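Need residues for this backbone.
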């Protein structure tokens, strides 16, 4: 009987920690909301092209919290890290993008015998500083 209050306090503390952790993630309204993920991604692109790479990474990561399968966001995180000269993190996120969508291949498919659908699109090439990639 004496350990009943202790169990209750432990449960209450655990619930509080869980709430704090979940509060740091995307809000409940944003979870699985592709419009919110797209908004974060677009904001990340704006920051990327303003050469504000750290802030761009934060926006792309927010998009990933909402949509964990967002290969484009991983791809641009990779380029942001590349611009920041953090090659290990760049390679890690390029790899994540590739595993989610083979279109984001780290090695361009330029063999003449490859079918057109396996040729790299403009999104799988490094983004131009002056023009954002097409979606």
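Answer:
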């Amino acid at each position: 009987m004496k350990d009943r209050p202790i169990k209750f306090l432990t449960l209450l503390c655990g619930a509080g920690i869980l709430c704090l952790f979940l509060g740091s993630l995307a809000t409940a309204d944003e979870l699985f909301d592709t419009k919110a993920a797209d908004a974060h991604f677009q904001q990340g692109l704006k920051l990327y092209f303003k050469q504000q790479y750290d802030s761009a990474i934060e926006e792309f990561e927010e998009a990933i919290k909402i949509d964990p399968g967002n290969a484009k966001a991983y791809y641009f995180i990779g380029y942001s890290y590349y611009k920041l000269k953090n090659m290990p993190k760049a390679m890690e996120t390029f790899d994540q993008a590739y595993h989610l969508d083979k279109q984001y291949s780290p090695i361009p498919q330029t063999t003449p015998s490859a079918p057109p659908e396996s040729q790299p699109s403009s999104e799988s090439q490094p983004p131009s500083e002056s023009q954002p990639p097409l979606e």
